[in-house]
Design goal:
The structure is a homodimer. The first copy, chain A, has three domains: 49 residues, Helicase, Ruva Protein, domain 3, CATH 1.10.8.420; 94 residues, Dna Topoisomerase Vi A Subunit, Chain: A, domain 2 (3-Layer(aba) Sandwich); 30 residues, no CATH class. Chain A is built from eight helices and six strands, in the order αααββαβαβαβαβα. In chain A, helix 1 packs across helix 2.
Chain lengths: 202, 202
């Protein structure tokens, strides 16, 4: 594309670096920003740079935070005996939105994936073991994706955590709420039978 | 959504103001930016604010420009006797990319739309008449959308330009290249017969 302006071209190039945004969408966004008041573009630019430069990662659970320790780890209303292990910050948000969990978190920063060259040492596993060793924790809940990588990571963590003697559980895999039996895949259905629970206990 | 960080929340709010980007996509983009080097987010923020604060609109054709006059109006290789009238900056880019047009442009900044409260006085029509009055122009090509609003604007411009005595043409409406006859709508097909051209002349 030939741009009549270097300024537009630069903005389009930078915006199109974002995931899922191509040159055409970037141009649409740039032209939209051009029509806005200068205050709007400044607020956008400032919020991005401020977020990137001032954000902290919680020293305990590696969740994002405005402070050295995140609001969940600091809270006195959370159950400090349970730690839920997740892959990503987004998983923390997802679980928090269910309002079903009152414990703490531990963000691994990824899952073991030999294809992408991510081994256990790339993940925040040692700090998890340390937290368990401190002795306050009675249960670790593994809440990783039901993929090959997620299962591998769960298996590895289970083995590592066995030494500490802490109780380790994993979130249930089964048919989703609202899901119809005949459309559920065989593996999921098979697992949901093997890991069945007493009726009324769910 | 409950954000663990005010910084993230601000960034997500600002990003989700962009057209076509919801809260979930904004969060995905914010978390992506968090993982990038600080240089990347700074380049993005700078390009946006710089574009918004330093951009000019060409004094002659109202196209975007890094200068008081745009590169097309300044160029000595363009045919200065023809002006193509378009709605938007994006239309200039689209026509430029065809490599079929060597004349100048005039960006109206919209089309007449009573529903949206846009009348002729909101558009850059007076400056177009002035350009024609200067006497160098021999043909005005109306390249507006084939919509009700586009046609209304073409009709209005045709009437206004009649006084000046300049030749006025409009881009052809017909079946698109690669389009099959049986799938073309009746109005387009009817028009393409009425405005037929001598074979070999297209």
């Amino acid at each position: 594309m030939n741009f009549p302006s270097k300024l537009i071209e630069d903005a389009v190039t930078e915006i199109s670096r974002l995931p899922g945004i191509g040159k055409k969408t970037a141009l649409r966004l740039a032209l939209h920003l051009l029509k806005q008041n200068e205050v709007v573009t400044e607020a956008l630019a400032l919020s991005i740079t401020k977020m990137r430069s001032e954000i902290h990662y919680c020293k305990t659970c590696h969740n994002i935070s405005d402070d050295v320790e995140c609001s969940i780890c600091k809270s006195h209303r959370r159950d400090r005996t349970t730690i839920c292990v997740v892959e990503d910050i987004r998983d923390v948000l997802a679980i928090e939105n269910t309002n079903q969990y009152q414990g703490l978190y531990h963000v691994l920063g990824g899952v073991i994936s030999p294809i992408q060259g991510i081994g256990p040492e790339e993940l925040k596993i040692e700090t998890l073991i340390e937290r368990v060793m401190l002795g306050d924790v009675s249960e670790i809940i593994l809440a990783l994706s039901a993929t090959m990588e997620g299962d591998t990571t769960s298996f590895y963590l289970g083995k590592r955590l066995k030494e500490t003697g802490v109780k380790v559980s994993t979130i249930a895999r089964g048919i989703p709420v609202g899901g119809e039996l005949e459309f559920t895949d065989e593996v999921t259905l098979g697992r949901s039978i093997l890991t069945r629970i007493n009726y009324g206990n769910e």
